[in-house]
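Subject: sequence -> structure tokens, single chain

Hey, anyone have a minute? Need the predicted structure for the following. Not urgent.
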Amino acid sequence: MKKVATATKNMNSAMSSANRASSPSSAKSYLSTAERESKNIDSAQDKSARYSADIASKMSDLSRAQEHVLKGEEDERKKTSDLYEKQRKADEAARKRLTDDNRALSKDLASLRAQLTAAISTQASSTQPFVVENAEGRETPYDFFISHAWKDKEDFVNGLVSAAKEAGLDVWDDQSAIVWGDSIRQKIDDGLRRSFFGVVVLSPNFFERPWTQYELDGIVQRDLSGAGRLLPIWHRLTQDDVAAKAPSLAGRLALPTSTYSTAQIVDELLEMRDRFKAVAR
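Reply:
Had a minute. Here:
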């Protein structure tokens, strides 16, 4: 625009000079200058028009680019929102499945405990009274003889014995009953003879040791003769494992440590003691 203004000024000045020229040659020279400045004005105006058109085109391109960016951002927000909603629904469905599974598991456990209680009641009602000798130096027999492998003490048996004693159960276990110099065989026989029940913690370790086999034989013999009861606990074993090692025990109702906590096993032992001691003489 500055060039147009300058050229216009020069053109007007040349036209004015041409009008005042004293000779035709001078007037012609001024007119030539005015024509040249007129062409400069036209050229500058053309350039200005092209610049304006170019600016308008670039502004249009910029506007489209901005719209594209905004649309991309909106699409990204929508995509993120959709992914979030999809994940939220998936998480909600997973929580519902977990809740349903836990509820079903609780029902299964409750059903299993009910079956066990019913089986205990049935067995107790049909059991012939059995005789157990009083423990040496005591007025009453032990409630339970705990047969187990030494390797299972730390991860299960010690906790079971401790919890059972705290609950008021009278338990024979090797650590408290056998001292230095005792005959292990005699002590085991004495413990079996003076206990109402033989609790056998069957495990992979149990079937590897000769003393546990000896205890199991004694408990089974007393169970068959009616002088005691065998109560199996499965520790890190399945029914198939028990069937492979001791087929005669696989069909007995047992408490697996995979399903029952130590506290729940102690509760079952308390109920067993109370039911069966009522029929003992």
